[in-house]
Amino acid sequence: MKKEGIFLLVLLLLIFPIISAQNSTINSTETEDKIEKGFECLEAKAGDCSSLTNQEIALTILATPDEIFDDCVEELQDRESSDNWGNVRDTALAVLALKHAGKDTQDSEEWLLGKSRTPTELIWYMEEDSEGETQCHIGYDSTDYLITLGENKKIDQNAGSCLTRAQSNFWLQIAPECFGKEFTLECDKDFIGTLLYKNKNSPTIYVLEGTKSAQAYGSMEIKVNSKCFGDTSSCDYEATLWATFALLKTGYDVEEYFPYIIAMSETNKRYLPDAFIYMVTNYEGYATKLASAQKLGNYWEADSTAYSRYYDTSLAILSLGGSSSEQITNAKSWLLFSQGSDGCWQGSVRDTAIALWALEGRSGKNSEGGGITYCSQAGYYCIPSSECPTEQDVGDAYYCSVQSETCCMSENLKSCSGYSGSVCGSNEVCTGNERKATDTEKCCTGECVERPTETECESMFYSCRGSCLETEEEISYSCNSGQVCCRTKTETEKSLVWKWILIIGILVVLIIIGYLFREKLKLLWFKLKIKFKKDKGGGSSPPGGPPRFPPQQQRPPYRQGFPPLRNNQNPVNQRRIPRTEEKENSDVFSRLREMSK
Questions:
Q1: Whether the Cβ atoms of residue 297 and residue 429 lie closer than 8 Å to each other
Q2: Are residues 88 and 73 part of one domain?
Q3: How many CB atoms lie within 10 A of CB 7?
Q4: Are 468 and 484 in contact (CB under 8 A)?
Q5: Domain tally, the chain
Q6: CB count, 10 Å around CB of 565?
Q7: In a domain, 576, yes or no
Q8: Where is 72: in which H helix or E strand?
Q9: Is 31 part of any domain?
Q10: Residue-number span of the structural domain to which 478 is assigned
C-alpha cells in the first residue's frame, strides 16, 4: 500500500505541469486575481508615464480611471501643444483618454475635424433605375444634361465632364474633381437613385446606405460626401479609424467617414478594420465577419498585424464585448491564460493596457471629475446606437463598456428572426455575432455550424497552419492532416519555464523517495562500502566452489590497542563502550550476518 501511494505521488508531481498547461478554464476568483496582477504590472511599468509614448499613455488611462494613473493624465495634458499631440491618431487617442478621465477636449475635437480630407483612393458611381425605358435630366453647375436609360438598363451617353459612362454603361462614374457637387435628377417615370463606391485597388463594389426614390417628374439630389483623416494632404487609414471612433464617442455624426473606412479595409487588414467598422457603424454584417475571423475559436490576429495577437484580440473584444457568444467568452479566457507571469502581456505597456481595457471595461469620469454610473446601475439598457431612438438615448449620462453600444431607456428588442438570425443547436457554434432577442438570449446573426473537433495543438492554444509564419516556430503537437503546429517565437521562454518546473518536480520526487527510504539507503551504502574494501584487499573466492569466508579469529581482549596502564590505574575505571553503542554495533553485525547467509 505504501508503494502504491508513493507511485501516485510521483505520478501527480510529474504530470502536474502538463495538467496546468492544458487547463484553460479560469474561474471568477482567478480572473479577478489575474486582472489585479495586470494592473499592478501596468502601474509598475508605466510609473509616472513620462517614459511612455502618447499611444501607451492614452491606452493606460482608458484601462482605468483610478487615481493611480492621475500622473498619466497630467503627463498627457502637459504634452499637448499647438499641434495637439503631433498627429491625428495620437490626438484621437488623447481625446478618448481625457474624455474618459473627465477632462474637456472640445479644442482637440475641433482640431481633428480640421484634419478631414476628401479621399482620392475611392471611385464613385451614380446609378439610376426605373421600369422600362426612361428619360432623365441631370443638372449641376447650372447646366442640364439629358440621358436615356434603356430597357436593358444601359445609359446612352455621358452627362458632361463630371459623369461618364462606366461598368458596361450601366452606371455613371463621378470624376474626382466633382466630389462634393450636388446633382439633381428628374425622370419621366418613377425611379430610384443611389451612389456606389469602391477601392481603386479592389474589385468589390459597395452600395451607399440610403437609396432614394421619386415619382415621375419628381426630383432628388445626390451628392458624394466622403471624408477621411490625414496629417498631410493624403489620407491615413489608422488615423481615420481612431479619429472616427473618437468623434463618435464625443457626439459627432461620422457617417461621411464610413465609405472610406469600409472600402479601404480590404487593403488595410493589418489594423483589424472590421472591429472599428462595427464599433462606428453597428452594421451587423461586420460583427459576423469579425467573429468568423477568430482563430481556433480563441483569439484574433490580423493578417500581417501592425501590433500583436494580444492587441488584436483585445480590440475585437472591445468591439464585440456585448455579445453573449461563446467566442467572446473563449477570447477572454485565452487572453487571461496568455498573461505573463509578471502580470503583463508580452511585457508591453501597450498590449497590457488595451487588454485590461477590454477585460475590465471600467467606466470613466464625468466632466465634473466624478465617476460615471454604469447604464445597468441606472436601470437602463446598453444596446447598439442605431437601435435606440434619439429621445431614449441617455448615453452621455451613463456608461456602456461595449464601444459600439449606447445607454438606452428601453431594450427595443426584436425577435431572432427580426434580426435575420437563428438559434444554434447544442452541437453547433455560431460563427458570427450573438445577441439577445425577445425569444432567446442567444440569437446567432451569423451562421450555425457544427462544433469543430479541437486538435491537440489547438487545445494548447497554439495555431495549426500549412506552414508557420516567420514570427512562429514549429512544435510537435498534432494538427489535422497537412498542417503543422505553430507558436510565436516569444513563447519559447514559457516552454523553458515548464521544463524547469518539470525538472524541479522530479528533484522534489527524488528527495521524497530518499526521505521515505532513508534507512534502506543507509544500509545499501554501508554494503557498498564493505564490498569496496573487500575488493581493494584482493580477496576472492576460489574458482569452482561457493564463496568462502576466512576463519574467524579469536577476539582480542578489550585492552588490546589501549595504552598500558600507569600509576596502578584500575582496569575497571577504563572507559567502556556505552550500552547504546554496543546495541547499535550488535544490530549492524546482525544485519551483516543476515546478508552473508
A1: yes
A2: yes
A3: 10
A4: yes
A5: 4
A6: 12
A7: no
A8: helix 70-78
A9: no
A10: 1-24+461-516
Q: Mind listing the pLDDT tens digit of every residue in the chain (597 residues)?
A: 445 444 444 444 444 444 443 444 456 788 889 999 999 999 999 999 999 999 999 999 999 866 668 899 999 999 999 999 999 999 999 999 999 888 999 999 999 999 999 999 999 999 999 999 999 999 999 999 999 999 999 999 999 999 999 999 999 999 999 999 999 999 999 999 999 999 999 999 999 988 899 999 999 999 999 999 999 999 999 999 999 999 999 989 999 999 999 999 999 999 999 999 999 998 888 988 998 899 888 899 999 999 999 999 999 999 987 665 788 889 999 999 999 999 999 999 999 999 999 998 776 666 555 566 778 777 888 887 778 887 888 766 677 766 667 888 888 888 888 888 889 888 887 877 788 888 888 888 878 888 767 788 877 778 788 888 776 788 889 888 888 998 876 544 555 556 677 788 888 888 887 777 766 776 676 666 666 555 555 444 444 444 444 444 444 444 444 344 444 444 444 444 444 444 555 565 566 566 555
Residues 355 and 391 placed together within one structural domain of the fold: no
Q: Do residues 347 and 242 both lie within one domain? A: yes
Residue with cell 458632361: 160
DSSP letter for 321, please: T
**Please, what is the Cα angle at 367 between 107 and 32, to 5 degrees?**
115
DSSP state of 295: B
Residue 590 neighbours by CB distance under 10 Å: 10
